[in-house]
Design brief:
Layout: H1 2-11, H2 34-49, H3 52-65, H4 70-83, H5 86-103, H6 109-120, H7 124-136, H8 143-159, H9 163-175, H10 181-204
Length: about 210
């Protein structure tokens, strides 16, 4: 379906977030030993290459060695999600979020990633909860991150038939954050809403 292809297009880039690569130390947690940081950066590279099992193996060792390493839990969650282990991915992302909030770390992209993970699970309530939290942190996000947040939130509203809400957040993605994909999404809102109305009208006929 066109809708499914649109979902893939918008969300595919959301996997590889969780902080930039750091050659020496970690920008969020400078106390993490440099060799562990290097391992996580290597795992992220493998995640980009699609070698998920290798990435997960490295990240499992990193979180065992440094249980409070935010980016290790974060990227482990992304790797597990990409492999299809949604519940395990959510657990790792939740651990990352707890570390973020406990230590006051300056990476708010975790809310979008966790919200997206719940969308994959079709847990719409938690998906909306975390995506709305991501939107509340928009001043901490890059423009690209905010595009992802509002596009994901709009898709969630489309999935759940909340066309007016979807339209509002896609307009934000387009007008405030320059999302070109939001224009296609807005056209899809109109298409799906028209189809829904036509179906409802057909069901009322005797």
């Amino acid at each position: 379906m066109a809708f499914d292809r649109l979902v893939i297009t918008i969300t595919a880039a959301a996997w590889l977030v969780g902080g930039a690569s750091h050659a020496v130390g970690d920008a969020f947690q400078p106390q993490i030993p440099a060799p562990i940081v290097a391992d996580v950066d290597a795992a992220r590279a493998k995640l980009q290459q699609g070698t998920l099992d290798e990435a997960i193996s490295i990240l499992d060792k990193a979180v065992a060695a440094q249980p409070n390493f935010f980016r290790a839990h974060y990227n482990l969650g992304l790797a597990k999600l990409r492999k299809g282990d949604v519940d395990d991915g959510i657990r790792s992302l939740t651990q990352a979020l707890q570390l973020r909030e406990k230590e006051g770390l300056k990476d708010a992209t975790i809310y979008n990633s966790l919200g997206y993970a719940y969308m994959v699970k079709r847990d719409w309530a938690n998906g909306e909860k975390y995506l709305r939290a991501a939107a509340q942190h928009e001043t901490e996000n890059t423009q690209t991150s905010n595009q992802k947040v509002y596009n994901n939130l709009g898709l969630l509203y489309l999935y759940t038939g909340r066309f007016d809400d979807a339209r509002k957040v896609f307009v934000v993605a387009r007008d405030r954050f320059g999302s070109t994909q939001a224009a296609a999404s807005l056209a899809l809102v109109d298409q799906l809403e028209a189809g829904s109305r036509a179906q409802a009208a057909g069901e009322k006929k005797p």
